[in-house]
Amino acid sequence: MNLHFLLPKGRLFSACRNYLRLIGCELHDPLRNGYCGKFESSEFTIHFWARKPSMIPHLLHDSRFHAGITGEDMFIQAQCPRLQSLKKLLFSSRMLKATSWVLAGKEPFNICEDATVGCEWEHLCNYLISRSVLRSICYQFVLLDGDEETAIEDGLCEWIICPTETGESLKFNGLSVKEELMQSGVCVYARNDIFRKDMEILENLIAALCAAHDAHQRKMVLFDLPASIPIQKLELHSSVSPSVSNLVDSKWKAYTTCCHCSDLPTILGTLKKAGAKGIVVHDVQGYIA
C-alpha cells in the first residue's frame, strides 16, 4: 500500500523533517520533482513530496496525493471544500507555537471609510477582516507580493494584514499591531474520500509526529530522595505522578518524573531544598499525553 504525503517547502520543511527524523523517517533534500524520500514498513510505504504551502490544499483536492501538512491560513485561502483537518500541530517555521496573523498600521490608529488594506492573500484577507475592527467599514484590498511591512511606508496602503512570529520586523518598520486576528497552526489535512485503511496509517503517523513534537516541551527528571520525605508534600508538577523505586539503602528512594520544560526550574529548586541527591535531567525522545 502506497500513500503520497505532501510537506511544505521553505523553512517549514526543515521543521517537519526534524520531527519525522525523530520517529525514524530520514528524508533527503527535495529532488527537482519535489520527491524527498519514503518511510517503509512491512505493510505500507509513505512517499513524501515537497510543494509550496499555498499549493498543498489544491493538490490534495484535485490530484494523486492523499494527505499533507500546511498552515491553516493556506487552507482558508485555498477554499477547497473536499478536505478534512486531521490534527493541528502547534509549531511554526521558527518557534514551537502558532504563527499570528495581525492587523498592523502606524500609530495613532485612524479607522476610516474606504481604508486601504494590503495583504498577500485576498481570500484570507477578507476572512480575517470579517473578524476584525474593520469589518463594519468599506475597504479597498491591495494585493501585496511580499514585503508587507514596508507597504505602508511605500504608500501602497494604510493597513496591512500579515503573519508574524516575533513582531520584530513590524517594530523595525515603525508599525504597531492593532489587533491579533488568528493563530495559524500547522495542520495535517487529508482528502475526504480517503480509504479507511489509509486513514489508519495517517492516524498512526500523526500520533508519532505529535509524540515527537510534544517531546521538545518535556524533560525527564530522575532523583533520589530521603525515604522519610513524603513525595506528595513536594507537590511536583508531573504528567501523571512520579514513579518510585526502592534502593539498596532503605533510607532513600529513587523517583522519576516527566514535566513540562517551564516547570523544570521550580522542580529543581524544590528538590534541592528537600535534600534530593543524584538529580539527573534527560531529554525526552517522544511523549504522548
Question: What keywords describe this structure?
Answer:
289 residues; alpha/beta; D-Maltodextrin-Binding Protein, domain 2; Alpha-Beta Plaits; 3 domains; 6-stranded mixed beta sheet; 5-stranded mixed beta sheet; 15 strands
Describe the structure.
With 289 residues, this protein is α/β, with parallel strands linked by helices. The longest helix has 20 residues, at 196-215. The mean pLDDT is 90. It folds into three domains: 2-96 and 185-215, Periplasmic binding protein-like II (D-Maltodextrin-Binding Protein, domain 2, 3-Layer(aba) Sandwich); 99-183, Periplasmic binding protein-like II (D-Maltodextrin-Binding Protein, domain 2, 3-Layer(aba) Sandwich), CATH 3.40.190.10; 218-283, Alpha-Beta Plaits (2-Layer Sandwich). It has nine helices and 15 strands. The two termini are 30 Å apart.
**Strand order in the largest sheet:** 2-3-1-4-11-5
Amino-to-carboxy terminus distance: 30 Å
Number of domains: 3
Enumerate the spans where pLDDT stays under 50 for 5 or more consecutive residues. Answer: none
| Cα shape | flat
Number of helices: 9
Helix content: 25-40%
Query: Which CATH architecture of the largest domain is right?
Result: 3-Layer(aba) Sandwich
The first-level CATH class name of the largest domain = Alpha Beta
**CATH homologous superfamily identity of the largest domain:** Periplasmic binding protein-like II
Assembly type of the shown chains?
single chain
For the sheet with most strands, the description reads: 6 strands, mixed
Number of strands: 15
Radius of gyration: 24 Å
**Proportion in β-strands:** 25-35%
Question: What do we call the CATH topology of the largest domain?
Answer: D-Maltodextrin-Binding Protein, domain 2
Q: Which class best fits the helix and strand makeup? A: alpha/beta
Helix and strand string, N-terminal first? Answer: EHEEHEHEEEHEHEHEEHEHEEHE
Summed over residues and divided by their number, the pLDDT gives a mean of 90
